[in-house]
Amino acid sequence: QVQLVQSGSELKKPGASVKVSCKASGYTLTSYAMNWVRQAPGQGLEWMGWINTNTANPTYAQGFTGRFVFSLDTSVSTAYLQISSLKAEDTAVYYCARVVGASSLSWFDPWGQGTLVTVSS
Amino acid sequence: SSELTQDPAVSVALGQTVRITCQGDSLRSSFANWYQQKPGQAPLLVIYGKNNRPSGIPDRFSGSSSGNTASLTITGAQAEDEADYYCHSRDSSGWVFGGGTKLTVL
Predict the structure, then answer these.
(1) How far, in whole angstroms, is CA A44 from its chain's centroid?
(2) How far is CA A117 from CA A19, A41, A87, B24, B46, in A?
(3) Measured between CB atoms, which of B42, B94, B99 is closest to A112?
(4) What is the pLDDT of residue A102?
(5) Interface with chain A: mutation pick from B52, B86, B90, highest number of A CBs within 10 Å
(6) pLDDT confidence of B50, banded at 50, 70, 90?
(7) CA distance to partner chain A, nearest, from residue B73 (Å)
(8) Of the four, A51, B11, B13, B85, which is 20 to 30 A from A62 by CA?
């Protein structure tokens, strides 16, 4: 079945970097774009941006430029989110989600199980 | 970027019908999707497009829209429907989520 499996929880110190992986199975990674979504503790879902899995071209939402990088390794069907210069406010669960459809009729399905990144000294 | 506005909390008696609404300019040109999220779990797609249910989603879930407002209706709410619900749509910058509605089943 179509599935996205993310890497495990991370505990990092402020100023460090983290790389979250999202491995796709049950379909070809390059057939669908991949999105990243952040959920801070007790908060709602926030769209971070997406990566075109054919061209590896990323698009970042407002507020997610500079320290956030989306990348791919198509040889292992995996998308990555890297966050550098971590701050306490980056503490959140990060989800990857495949986008299905096109233009005004598009939706996210499935989602990865989420990766908790905790930033604390 | 645009915004989608949801009521923070809604309650419904067991077996009754509840409607969760979502308002935003992007809904005038894009379809709304709805996700259910239970504590400690990833969001789950329950409605996409005009009124489509993924395989495995009970038919008590339905969607509708008019103008800048989209609605998720649960007809005959069950205890297991207690969760957070998020609307979602395409906008000019990419995609946008509503702030979420916490549904309590009494």
Answers:
(1) 16
(2) 10, 11, 11, 31, 27
(3) B42
(4) 86
(5) B90
(6) confident
(7) 19
(8) B85
